[in-house]
What does this fold into?
Amino acid sequence: MTSLLEQRYRMVLRLLPTAYRERWGDDMMATFLEGAYESTPDDPELVEMGRPTWGEIRAVVGLSIRLRLGGAEAPARPRLWGDAVRQFALLALVAFASVAIVGPVVALLARAGAFDPVVTPGTWEKAAQMLGLLWVAPLFLVLFGQFRAARGVAAAAVVAGLLWTVER
Amino acid sequence: MTEQAFFILTALLAGPRHGYGILAEVAQLSQQRVELKVGTLYGVLDRLVGDGLVVLDREEPHQGRLRRYYAITDAGSNALAAEAERQAANARLAARQLRAHRPATGPAPAGGAA
It folds into this structure.
């Protein structure tokens, strides 16, 4: 009979690509269960009612992402997909950052009297401009190799953009 | 070579081990500093097998499940030796620069920095 813990970890393993799961899934399950029983040797029944820890789930999620969108060490096809996704993300970042810079520059020029503003931006438009500037930082962070920080700020920009859309 | 691959290969030097055996040995060798998750272990193992640094050694039934034992290959121990030498060279370099450029906290060593 399979325990709850086993059923739950099997659900997590479904995140993995099929070919990979067929090759390694049983072995992963055996290793995972052995580790779970070893961690609480006095109470196997408690172990069987348990859930995989977040750390174990995160490791499988991370593996699944790496297998599908692999980097330098991944096989050819996932690597190709990974490269495509990364390049698209970079292009999108450049586009967002460029658009974000144009707004304030136009506003400054208008204020300096270079031309009459066609429309006067309202509060919401100004908020959108400020939020847009959030996209400039990750671009420079990427340029200077600060990928982790870039991901964080870009994620914040996405969330802020979504909130802006919803609130409006 | 990642630190995880480095520790997994090191753990296999003493003999073939199964998945949990590798996790336990890596934790012990690193004094619990490296505690691999299962998903991490098999991501690295898949690559090491693919690169021919590790092979499946044998399968043994254990409490209704198959335990698969993995062994390091000659190519694996060569790669590990090269990586260990590279890290040792880096460490020597850093230690030499530290001796030369960091202000001494205790009494200066006899002869001092070159």
